[in-house]
Amino acid sequence: MWEDLGVALEKVDKDKLKKKPDPDKLGFGVHFTDHMFLMKWNKTDGWHDARICPYQDFQLNPACMVFHYGQAIFEGLKAYRGKDDQLFLFRPKDNFERMNNSALRMCMPRLPVDKVVSALKAMIYLEKEWVPRTEGATLYIRPTMIAVEPMLGVKPSSSYYFYIIMSPVGAYYAEGCNPTKIYISDQYVRAVKGGVGNVKTAGNYAASLFMSEIAKKAGCTQVLWLDACEHKYVEEVGTSNIFFRIDNQLITPPLEGSILGGLTRDSVLKLAASWGIDVAERRISIDEVLEANGSGRLQEVFGTGTAAVISPVGELFYQEQHYIINNGKTGELAARLYTELQAIQNGYREDPFNWVVRVG
Ligand code: COI
User: Fold this and answer.
1) Looking at the structure, do residues 62 and 159 belong to the same domain, yes or no?
2) Distances from the Cα of 306 to the Cα of 19, 46, 91, 150, 266, angstroms
3) pTM for the full predicted model
4) Is 1 a residue whose pLDDT tops 70?
5) Which of 65, 100, 217, 301 has the fewest CB atoms lying closer than 10 Å?
6) Cα gap 268→336, rounded to integer Å
7) What is the CATH number of the domain that holds 104?
8) Ligand 1, residues 75, 239, 267: which to mutate, most atoms within 8 A of Cβ?
9) Ligand 1 center to residue 42 CA distance, Å?
10) Which residues line ligand 1 (CB under 6 A)?
11) How far is the CA of 280 from the centre of ligand 1 (A)?
12) DSSP alpha helices (H): ranges in 145-246?
C-alpha cells in the first residue's frame, strides 16, 4: 500500500510506542502520536522523499527562512471515531485546497491534494488506536508547511518541508461546551483587506497574542476583532468565525479578504439553510449587535472552528462594559448545530452534503 502511495514507511518499534494519555484529560495539542508524515520540496525535484516516520524533532539551520520571515502555513482538521470503531475525516480535501490557496499567497509550492489525503488516511489507519473513544474527543490533525532554505535575504525560500502531526484532543477552550466570555478589541486589529487575514499563516496568530493576553487579564477567553479601517464591523475571533442570531436570522460577516474562510463556518451556513433557517453573510457592526442585545432581539452568539467546534458566547466585553448574551447560556441553535455536526462527523447521522470521508 505504501509503495502504491509513493510513501516510505518507517515504523516505530513496538516496544518504543508511547503510552496513550488519559482520555478524560487530553487538553488540546499537548500529546502527539507515534508517527508523522514528512515530505520535502526543492526546485529541482518538486515534492519528494515522502515518508511516514517516527514522530521526531527537526534539526534545522538557524538561518532557515521560516525563523526570520515567517513563511509558514498550516491547517487544522480532525479524525472522528464512530460506531463499530469506524474512523472518519471531515472535508479533508477542502482543507488541503485551502492550504493551496494559502501557499499561493505566501509564495509556497502547491500540494498534490489527492496524494496527501491518501497518505493522511493511511497514517490515521496506522495510528487508529490514537483516535479517542471518549465522547467529544477527537484526533486533531495539523498539516504544516515551512520554509527551510538557510538564507537571510527577503525572498521566497527555495526549499520547504511539509509535515503532518496528530494530537488526541478534548475541548479547545477550558470552558468546554459552556459559554465563553469574549473581549472586543477596538484598539488593535487583526487584518486588513489585501493583507493575509484570509490566509492560514503563522504570523496572523503571533500578531494576535498581545491582545489575547489583555483579554485574558480581563477574564475573557478570546478576542473578537473589528475591521481595521473603521473599528466598527465585526470580523472574526482568530481561532474561530463568529455567528449572531438576531430576530431568528443567522448572521455571519462576509468573506471580503480579511477573514479566514472556515470550513466549520461554511458547514454551519449550509446546515442551517437546509433546516429552513434564514442565513445571511453580511456586514454587521458592533453597534448593531449591542443594540439588538439591548432590545432583546439578540438570541445567541457562537463561534465556529475545527478546534472550537461550536463555541457559545455568554458575554461580550466592550469599552469597559459587560454585555450578557442569552442570560449567559448556550443558545438553542448552537446546541442543535453542535449535536448535528458531531453526529455527521462521527458517522451517526446521514451526511447529505458528502462531507465525511471514511478511513480504512
Ligand atoms: C483550528 O480550528 O483548527 C485552528 O487552526 C484554530 C487554532 C487552534 C489555531
Assistant:
1) yes
2) 26, 30, 11, 33, 11
3) 0.96
4) no
5) 217
6) 11
7) 3.30.470.10
8) 239
9) 28
10) 76, 205, 239, 305-308
11) 24
12) 202-217
At 20-58, the pLDDT tens digits run 999 999 999 999 999 999 999 999 999 999 999 999 999
Residue nearest atom 8 in ligand 1 by C-alpha distance: 307
Instruction: Output the CA 98–ligand 1 centroid distance in Å.
Output: 14
Task: Indicate the pairing of strand 180-185 with strand 222-225.
Answer: parallel
Same domain membership, residue 340 and residue 269:
yes
Of 169, 195, 216, which residue sits at a domain end?
169
Distance between Cα 196 and ligand 1 center (Å): 16
Residue 359 lies inside a defined structural domain of this protein: no
The burial of 143, by beta-carbon neighbours within 10 Å (0-12 exposed, 13-18 middle, 19 or more buried), is given as buried
34 shares its domain with 79? yes
Ligand 1, atom 3, residue with closest C-alpha: 76
Domain boundary among 169, 192, 226: 169
In the structure grid, which three cell numbers stand for residue 203, read together? 504570523
Ligand 1 atom nearest to CA at 205:
9
Domain that holds residue 65: 2-169
Distance (angstroms) between ligand 1 centre and the Cα of 28 equals 10
**265, 269, 271, 275 alpha-carbon torsion, rounded to 10°:** 150
CA distance 96 to 111: 7
